[in-house]
Design a protein that fits this description.
This protein is α/β, with parallel strands linked by helices and 341 residues long. The chain folds into three domains: 3-87 and 300-322, 3-Layer(aba) Sandwich (Rossmann fold); 91-209, NadA-like (Rossmann fold); 214-291, NadA-like (Rossmann fold). Helices cover 43% and strands 16% of the residues. The chain has helices spanning 3-15, 29-32, 41-50, 63-72, 96-108, 123-131, 142-150, 162-171, 193-198, 209-212, 216-225, 239-242, 251-260, 273-282, 305-314, 325-339; strands spanning 19-24, 37-39, 56-60, 78-80, 113-118, 135-137, 155-159, 179-182, 201-204, 230-233, 247-248, 266-270, 288-291. The strands form three sheets. A five-stranded parallel β-sheet has the order 6-5-7-9-8, sandwiched between helices. Strands 2-1-3-4 form a four-stranded parallel β-sheet, with helices on one face. Strand 10 (230-233), helix 12 (239-242) and strand 11 (247-248) form a beta-alpha-beta unit. Helix 1 (3-15) runs parallel beside helix 15 (305-314), helix 3 (41-50) packs parallel to helix 4 (63-72) and helix 6 (123-131) crosses helix 16. The structure holds iron/sulfur cluster (SF4). Residues 26, 62, 88-90, 120, 208-210, 272, 297, 299-300 line the site of iron/sulfur cluster.
């Protein structure tokens, strides 16, 4: 164990159950080694409320995840990040002003829309969604969330990830011609009144750099080199890629897919490299696991043993993540509608 690791473990032992460290699947192995729980963003946010003895929660992930943990934890618990500058570029592609403007456009042209917001979004965007009758979703339950809207005879306004939105619509049998892309940099999202009138789903033009890096060419190369391989990608990948794969799914679904694979199988995975490497390590000797392309989230990588240790030693006030109470109340509406699905 390195010296940094020993110091972190000594502080963890001192705090005992009063300290909870959460590590997202995309964190580096040296950080995950100190986590009490690993998981995707929502699993971890839920855990924060389950550990009743934890006074301080350290979220090793990106900013919107720590916000969700703050909103779903008990009021006497405090949530901290080792590196508060670890944001999510995709979440930041949807700001409150742009979403409000888009909502006004849709409201004036029918009003039969409901917002569905990916948990990879800021608390303010979740609050706007809650205020307008919508709900949050994860990449695991996006199809259920879409169906919840359709069952009410409404149309879906999804943000901030174009690709998860388009892939979910496709999974539900919605034709590409009924899915329109709203570009917040253009007047009226770049959409004509006719396009808005005929769309069943409108998706925000946002993306995750890590998953947008996967391409049709990479899939063709794997099919040529490893014809026996199964390919699974995350649904934040472009729809052309997803449709050529054997399977697609959230991080939790990718883990389940790998766990269920038969001995000796080759599986090529398109998601953040740290998770792929961890799975390859865990199943070494049983499965042959490869990355579709080494794709790393630079923001997830901002957390390391050094800034984790510094946080545990000094607990600076600036490292605490606290969502404004009014914003949190409205954002919780959209999270609770999702949890009730
Ligand atoms: S992997 Fe993508 S969605 Fe996740 S934090 Fe990084 S940029 Fe955001």
């Amino acid at each position: 164990m390195t010296e940094l690791a020993q110091q972190i473990e000594a502080i963890r032992a001192e705090w005992g159950k009063r300290l909870l460290i959460l590590g997202h699947h995309y964190q580096r192995a040296s950080v995950v080694a100190h986590a009490d729980e690993t998981g995707d963003s929502l699993e971890l946010a839920r855990k924060s409320g389950e550990y009743g003895d934890a006074e301080r929660i350290v979220f090793c992930g990106v900013h919107f995840m720590a916000e969700s943990a703050d909103m779903l934890s008990r009021s006497e618990q405090s949530v901290y990040m080792p590196e508060t500058g670890a944001g999510c570029p995709m979440a930041d592609m949807a700001d409150a002003g742009a979403m409000a403007a888009a909502w006004q456009v849709l409201d004036e042209r029918g009003g039969d829309w409901l917002p569905v917001v990916y948990v990879n979004s800021t608390a303010v965007i979740k609050a706007l969604c809650g205020q307008n009758g919508g709900l949050c979703c994860t990449s695991s339950n996006a199809a259920k969330a879409f169906q919840w809207v359709l069952d009410q005879g409404k149309r879906i306004f999804f943000l901030p990830d174009e690709h998860l939105g388009a892939n979910t619509a496709y999974d539900l049998g919605i034709a590409d011609s009924e899915v329109a892309i709203y570009d917040p940099r253009q007047p009226q999202g770049g959409l004509s009144d006719e396009t808005i009138a005929s769309a069943k789903v409108i998706v925000w033009k946002g993306f995750c750099l890590v998953h947008k890096a996967f391409s049709v060419e990479q899939i063709s190369q794997v099919r040529d080199r490893l014809p026996e391989a199964k390919i699974i990608v995350h649904p934040e990948s472009p729809k052309e890629v997803v449709r050529l794969c054997d399977a697609h799914g959230s991080t939790a679904q990718i883990i389940d897919y790998v766990n269920a694979a038969q001995e000796g199988e080759t599986i090529v995975i398109g998601t953040e490299l740290n998770l792929v490497q961890r799975l390859a390590e865990k199943h070494r000797g049983r499965l042959n696991i490869k990355a579709l392309k080494p794709s790393v989230c630079a923001n997830m990588a901002k957390t390391n043993e050094r800034n984790l240790l510094e946080l545990l030693q000094s607990w600076p006030a600036a490292a605490e993540i606290r969502v404004d109470a009014e914003v949190a109340a409205e954002a919780r509406l959209s999270l609770e509608r999702m949890l009730a699905l």
